[in-house]
Each structure stands twice: as C-alpha cells, then as structure tokens.
From TrEMBL:
It comes from Fictibacillus phosphorivorans. Residues 294-314 are annotated as: Disordered. This is Multidrug transporter. Pfam families: EamA. SUPFAM superfamilies: Multidrug resistance efflux transporter EmrE.
C-alpha cells in the first residue's frame, strides 16, 4: 500500500464511501418494487457501467477450471441471497436494526474462516465478537416489544449477513488467482441471473414499473454500489483492508441518521444501547484482528492472472 501516491487525503474518499453505502437502506425503503426486482436492476445497471472496464479481461475466463467456475456461481448465488434477505429485512424492521445486525459480517467471516480454513483468531478478538453478539441480542430484545414483524426483519438481516460472509470467503479464495474487477463482474452477472430465475419462478413482474422506481434502481447502482463498494475497492490500492473494514462501523450510524431525517424512524432505549454495544464490540474485534494480521506472515500464493484490488462486498 502506498498512501503517498494518493493525491487527496484518504479520509475524503472514505467518508464519501460511508455516506454512499448509508443511502442504500433509504432507497430500498423508498421503493415499492419487490426486493428481488430492486436487487436485480441494481446489479444489472452496475454491470452496464462496469462493462467498458472488464471486456478486455474476458479472455481470462478461458483459463479457469470447473471447480473455479462452480465457486464463481456459488459466490454469485450467495450474493443474490444476501440482497434478498437483507433488502427484505428493511421492509419489516427499522434501518438501524437491520444495518447494525448486518455490520456483524466480520464476525461471521471469522467463524466461517475457522470452519473452512482453520484460521484462528486472538482471545481479545473473540471477546469483541461476544460483546457485539450481546448487543445484537439486545436489539432483537428491543424489537420484541415493537412487533413480531420486526423480529422477522432482524432474522432476515442475520441470514443476509451469514450468506454474504460465505460469499466473501469464496471471494477470498478465488481472488488469490482471479482478477478482482472480472471477479466482481462475474458474480454480479450470476446474481442477476439468479434474480431473474427467482422472479420468473414466482411470477414477479420485472417490467411495468413507474419512472420513480427506475430512478431508485439507478440510484442503488450509482450511489451505494459505485460510489460505495467500488470506491472502497479502489481505495484498497492505497490503504489496508482493515481500514476499509472499519468503514462498516460508519454505515449503521449514517443509515440510522438518514432514516431519522428522511423516514422519521426512531429507536427505543434498548435498541440504542444494543447498537452502541454492537459497534463497540466490533471496533474492539476489528482492532485486535488487525493486530493479529500484522503479526502473521502471509503464506506464498500463486501469482494472480492480473493485478487488481481485492474486492470487499456488503
């Protein structure tokens, strides 16, 4: 990483990215279209914008084997499920509850990395994980007092977090030998196909929506996807992955503030307390994970097909 080659202070694009991804929940709430349609067009419009940057890399697809092809399809399917579950949760619970629970993603990634790769973590990081989970329980407990619908939304958000963790773990493995931009394009394409099949199977209309909805689909692609996740991917050329990971702590804060301003959503004392505990636990967890990574010497890996930043999803 070479911070000096960046012409502007790192915190400027980082803040832009945090604000951009915070708007994702607001756009989903504003839309009356089914979440499967929102997710499909969000990624489809992103694919169209990415096309000029990836078509020259298409030749690398001829070099992948059947196992890698299967993993790419699986990663794309998990990404589609993530959008279905998480965007669906926003229709049932508050933006704050959904995004705070989604921010538990590093915890599930750590658990999955231990199961799949036997990657170990420090006791301090485990303590942070447990604190964050305690906060998540407090959020759910607070939602019990509101309605059963809110609890269903919390569960959907947790399911969305689990599947996106699986998606990230597959990406971690594939990106050792796969161009990052082409990887993103491929899994987005698979996710769009999965959404299309889902909508056709359930007879969910994919056309005939008013102009307002098409505007929201486009906003979802441009703001939280391009100016959020794609911007974070670009920043990985200049800062560490741990720095980008810390940005997830900013999303629930930004999304909650925007939900208060644009949607009039408010939180109970239990939810505020649980949210604060989740963020504190995650901060402690990520800080100790970063310290452990600094002490660990990475094993040699096969050279990638071409250079590119490692992709982070959410």
């Amino acid at each position: 990483m070479n911070n000096t080659s960046l012409k502007i202070p790192v915190f400027i694009p980082l803040i832009i990215g945090i604000i951009a991804i915070s708007f994702s929940s607001i756009f989903v709430k504003w839309s009356d279209a089914p979440v499967s349609v929102q997710g499909m067009y969000r990624l489809l419009f992103t694919l169209i914008m990415m096309l000029p940057f990836v078509w020259k890399q298409a030749r690398y697809l001829k070099q992948i084997n059947w196992r890698e092809t299967f993993l790419l399809i699986l990663s794309g399917a998990f990404l589609a499920l993530h959008f279905l579950f998480w965007m669906g949760s926003l229709k049932l619970t508050t933006v704050a509850s959904s995004t705070i629970l989604l921010s538990l993603q590093p915890v599930f990634v750590m658990i999955g990395a231990y199961i799949a790769f036997r990657e170990k973590t420090s006791k301090a990081a485990i303590i942070g994980m447990m604190v964050a989970i305690l906060g998540a329980i407090m959020i759910g407990w607070g939602d019990i007092g509101i309605s059963a619908k809110h609890i269903q939304g919390d569960l959907l958000s947790i399911l969305g977090t689990i599947v996106v963790a699986a998606h990230m773990l597959i990406g971690q493995k594939l990106l050792k030998t796969f161009p990052a931009t082409l990887y993103s394009f491929t899994v987005f394409l698979v996710a769009v196909i999965v959404f299309g099949i889902y909508n056709l199977t359930l007879n969910i209309p994919m056309t005939g929506y008013p102009e307002k909805e098409w505007g929201i689909f486009l906003l979802l692609a441009i703001i939280p996807t391009v100016f959020g996740h794609v911007l974070f991917n670009w920043l990985l050329k200049y800062v560490t992955a741990a720095t980008i990971s810390m940005a997830i702590l900013g999303e629930p804060v930004g999304a909650t503030l925007l939900a208060y301003l644009f949607l009039g959503e408010s939180l109970t004392l239990s939810q505020w307390s649980g949210g604060a505990i989740v963020l504190a636990g995650l901060y402690y967890f990520l800080q100790n994970t970063r310290k452990q990574n600094k002490r660990t010497t990475p094993a040699p890996i096969k050279p990638p097909l071409t250079s590119g930043p490692i992709v982070k999803k959410g």
